[in-house]
Design a protein that fits this description.
- This is ATP-binding protein.
- The chain is of the alpha/beta class.
- The protein is about 50% helix and about 10% strand.
- The chain has 15 helices and 7 strands.
- The chain has helices spanning about 10-20, 45-60, 75-90, 95-100, 130-140, 160-175, 195-200, 220-230, 240-250, 255-265, 275-295, 300-310, 325-335, 340-350, 370-380, and strands spanning about 35, 60-65, 145-150, 185-190, 210-215, 355-360, 365.
- The strands form 2 sheets. Strands 2-3-4-1-5 form a 5-stranded parallel beta sheet, with helices on both faces.
- Strand 3 (about 145-150), helix 6 and strand 4 (about 185-190) form a beta-alpha-beta unit.
- The protein is globular and about 70 Å long.
- The termini are far apart.
- The model has no long low-confidence stretch (mean pLDDT about 90).
Length: about 400
């Protein structure tokens, strides 16, 4: 088996980096921001870390990456402020890893003087994010790219909206400055396509007018690469490329599920691996969906009733979860009276577990559209046949 365990998407990353850093006449909207959507576990974060960030850095950009799901206990603004603060601190620290990596920019190794109060960046009375990014661009004389993974987590709270407005202010302050030696560029990624699209299309949103794009899921070349890696190992049973590709699509283009299916194939006897492969992939796809829905089961009957109510509201979400009509719905589902305080506790748990999000005040939607679709498919199977 090959020891190379990473599948690189250099072409895709290079094209995206070029569109962002050196946009042509048809790509100028990237300067307003890029919002990249794709369902969970299809490799977005891996692509960002191992391909896109290196491609941006190879073209001279300074990249700051923030994952809003990295620490659910912290607010999005706290995570972003800390990432910016750490970047500035490294630039001021002689011999830091960041300074060494930026030697090509002729920054030297002695550290930069940025005249920024590090301890209170983005906080009341402290330096603003706009001031921080202006200083970064002015001192490094290069493009600064901020990548926020799971950016939809900023929606639904005043603090999250304030963060987005602060980032827009930073973008405008840097990019509108005559003779700026670099630009501030923003990439937001997430698993909820409709919410990310709204962040670029609704006039009230700070990044209205930015580019909304779909993440390109892994293709047949990835499946071929995975099979080639395994082919050199003695005694392994492998499906044909065409069967493996069909199975990968059944598994939702999720690389971890593909490996899981290949491991299970080794435990199956018989002479037709392709037939066994299709059964394995279909079974795993159903099991993955059940695992996603299990999180809602753990919240009890009221949790399942609240989830049903939210899922019925469509991708845009539903309001009135605590109103009389909704309370009557929950009471009917669980067979006992329900009050608004009980529902609020369940909703708070769902938000804390990142199962649901609040895109705007009083409106809630399922965080992962794939989970919502799985639930809908299950409901369709359980529904009684139509009467003739």
């Amino acid at each position: 088996m090959s020891t190379d365990s990473l599948f690189h998407r250099d072409l895709y990353a290079g094209q995206m980096a070029e569109q962002l850093l050196n946009p042509g006449p048809l790509d100028e909207s990237t300067r307003s921001g890029v919002f990249l959507s794709g369902i969970r576990r299809v490799g977005k974060t891996t692509f960002l870390r191992q391909d896109l960030i290196p491609a941006l850095e190879a073209r001279g950009a300074l990249v700051i990456y923030v994952d809003l799901w990295a620490d659910p206990a912290k607010s999005p603004s706290a995570l972003v402020n800390e990432a910016v603060r750490q970047t500035l601190l490294q630039l001021q620290t002689p011999g830091s890893a960041l300074l060494k990596r930026l030697r090509g920019l002729r920054l030297g190794a002695a550290g930069l003087s940025l005249d920024i109060e590090l301890d209170r960046i983005g906080e009341p009375g402290g330096s603003t994010l706009a001031q921080a990014f202006e200083a970064l661009v002015a001192k490094t004389k290069t493009n600064v790219v901020l990548i926020i993974d799971e950016v939809q987590q900023t929606l639904g709270t005043d603090e999250g909206q304030a963060l987005l407005h602060a980032l827009k202010a930073a973008r405008d302050a840097v990019n509108a400055k005559p003779g700026t030696p670099g630009r501030f560029l923003f990439i937001g990624t997430g698993s909820h396509k409709s919410l990310l699209a709204e962040m670029t299309s609704r006039r009230a949103q700070p990044f209205a007018g930015a580019l909304s794009a779909s993440y390109q899921v892994l293709g047949k070349d990835f499946v071929q690469w995975q099979l080639d890696r395994l082919a050199s190992a003695p005694g392994l049973t492998l499906p044909s490329l065409d069967a493996a590709w069909e199975g990968f699509q059944t598994l939702g283009h999720r690389p971890e599920e593909l490996l899981k299916a290949l491991r299970q194939l080794q435990q199956v006897g018989g002479t037709d691996p392709d037939t066994a492969w299709h059964i394995i992939c279909a079974t795993l796809a159903g099991a993955a969906a059940d695992a996603d829905l299990k999180a809602f089961d753990d919240l009890g009957e009221l949790g399942k009733a609240v989830f049903e109510r939210i899922a019925s509201g469509g991708e845009q979400g539903i309001s009135g979860l605590f109103g009389a009509e909704s309370l009557a719905f929950y009471s009917e589902r669980i067979g006992s009276a329900v009050d608004a305080s009980q529902v609020q506790k369940v909703v708070d748990k769902m938000v804390g577990a990142q199962l649901i999000i609040r895109p705007s005040h009083g409106v809630y939607t399922i965080a992962d559209p794939f989970v919502r679709k799985v639930w809908q498919d299950k409901q369709a199977l359980l529904a009684p046949p139509p009467k003739h």
